[in-house]
Protein 1
Amino acid sequence: MSYPHPGTAHCQALFAKGVKMKVMAINGSPRKNGNTATLLDRALEGAASKGAATERVDLYDLDFKGCASCFACKRIGGKSYGKCARRDGLKPVLDKISAADTLIFGSPIYFGGISGEMHSFLERLVFPYLAYDEKHTMSFPKKIRTGWIYTMNVPAKWLRLAGYKQLFKQYQSLMARAFGASETLVVTDTWQFDDYSKYVSSMFDPEKKARRRREVFPRDCEKAFAMGARVATPPAGRS
Ligand SMILES: Cc1cc2nc3c(=O)[nH]c(=O)nc-3n(C[C@H](O)[C@H](O)[C@H](O)COP(=O)(O)O)c2cc1C
């Protein structure tokens, strides 16, 4: 899935000047070495292979809450217009993001949606940029590329039935509107426990899970690397 967006001029201008792109990955999983974090790291390696400066933010390390619905970001003439007014552990990250050239979001699927921390983060990131005008103007200062990486237990054949495809489309189109061209990588049937025999998990076949981890996950990692390399460069034919 990809939503082309005309806003690649920023990315092209940096490239033309030889300035390093700043690529940030946002980890919405509590596990720092889990599936999501591993794939985000591969994506950042892909971005670094194109000369980008990279950083991973682990949301679960930060002390923050979701939108407080204070509307300071919408107040006419207010000093926080278009910005989140909350001062907590997320503030420095939001400040950094306003200077980033590419964002890669990663989340495990929890109860059919993104993780709670990722949801709270998105409320704080996107809502301030969204103007309550007739055109729903988005005020992020430039057009940048974004990517989504999702990991989940279900096999690929369940994605449509479980409504996940619609979910991915919704977040991709939100990012395309808020920031610029966006793409999505979906990683299914992930490895959840180091040792399945130690957990109540009879709904899974540990042999099949281990095989998938061995044979398919490395290919998913390659796709993440390729995504990172792609989103850290201007699209072909546009320079
Ligand atoms: C609280 C919780 C809820 C989950 N809900 C779902 C779900 O609705 N659908 C699904 O496919 N997997 C679900 N999973 C499994 C995770 O999405 C999956 O193991 C994921 O790859 C974990 O990512 P991580 O290794 O980065 O932590 C859930 C896991 C947890 C802990």
Protein 2
Amino acid sequence: MSLRLVIIGGGPAGNSAATHAARLGARVTLIERDILGGAAHLWDCVPSKAMIATGAAWGEIRHADGMGIRTEHAGLDFESLRRRIDSIEDRLESSVRQLLESQGVRIVRGTGRLKGPHQVVAETAEGIEELEADAVVVATGSRPRIPDWAEVDSERVLTTRDAYPPSSLPEHLVVIGSGVTGVEFVHMFSSFGCEVTLIVSRQQVLPRKDPEVAAALEEDFLRRGVTLYKGARAVGVERTGDTVKVSCNDGRVAVGSHALLAIGPVPNSEGLGLVDAGVEMEDGYVRTVDHHLRTNVPHIYVAGDISGKLPLSSVAAMQGRKIAEHVMGLHVREHRHLDYEKAASAIFTDPEIADVGLGEADAFAEGRKVRVTKVPFAATAKALINNDPRGFVKIISDPATGQVLGGSIVGRHAAELISVIALAVTAGLRVTDIHESLLVHPALAEALAEAAE
Ligand SMILES: Cc1cc2nc3c(=O)[nH]c(=O)nc-3n(C[C@H](O)[C@H](O)[C@H](O)COP(=O)(O)OP(=O)(O)OC[C@H]3O[C@@H](n4cnc5c(N)ncnc54)[C@H](O)[C@@H]3O)c2cc1C
């Protein structure tokens, strides 16, 4: 009899585990209480990037004079943007559902929880269903963190989930948190023409990123008129009528019309019966005991944000796939462990930012000898044709072997271009492998080849 796998949560982690395990021969049941595709599609990646894409199109239109285009009658239409986001989500949900169904995955619409180590209960509109499982994947994701010093009213004090899209634009948005999510929202709302203040708890935005990369973004923010409160930690948010005041620990107060909290996720780990099933927890996340993402109960796995690893949709999906391979015994043969250090990530600002592998600052901090080569996009014909010469490509390699260890890209299409460096890092390629590839001309990728010389 085939292995019975029950998955709780149908985001990128759960879907990927389900399709791969079913393809490998498991009998899979997936329980989802909301939308197939998860928060990634409903609240996080998809709507935020759709808003950013509209902001970018709007920015291009407003700055299109140099391209020989007249734009007097252009305007923003939030109702049509809302319909656009809804339609993208509908299409994605339906393609996820079709994929799952095509692999024979049984989809249960309801809320799942463990009743025991091998029993899962699904509460559905029709009643309670009890499922026996040989293996379980918990992939319930996360939600925005709300600190005890803030009260969210979803009108003027917002989490990221309240912003898609706003019925009207905030006159002045104060964004709390200058990590990836915070800076994307600063970019998004300033692209629409809102006044924005960003509370930056350290001395640079994106505190974990290469300082040169962060500096390129700060330069853009300042050019747009964004106010940066550096070295300030928010400690209170108070709404009075149409005004919101954000107090900081250094005594400064940022006053705006709206405040948006972007201070990280909390795992959706409550009410899942994990502890009763014997699963150990760590700060609200599920503790994993090995790189197969097993918990201390060997047939219960966790994937995605709830695993407390790297909260990225791409990572969640790969975790799901790796779990499927392990559950089905494939790890003995073709399986490669997931290496979080080699995960590419991007920040959809303007300029776009992407990086992978070892960063220059990390190499420096570790006292590691590396070769760093940097080429500005301005050196390529395509950047000049695009009327956008900003940004650069940086490749970090081993000076002795030429092996590519990492890289950063700032500029147009950085999220796409980083794939070349990501492949090189994962496959252990050398800089000459990139340099000797016959690339397209004119293309921004020529800067990659130059940096790999
Ligand atoms: C604003 C924002 C933008 C982001 N942009 C990006 C991006 O551009 N690229 C990127 O890689 N990552 C991005 N992320 C991160 C990404 O959204 C998450 O890492 C990803 O959603 C994690 O996937 P997951 O499968 O773990 O969880 P989720 O996508 O959260 O899915 C979990 C699912 O489980 C369901 N669920 C929860 N509890 C139960 C239960 N008891 N029973 C049944 N179902 C349940 C939920 O309804 C949900 O559908 C962004 C995050 C935020 C906040």
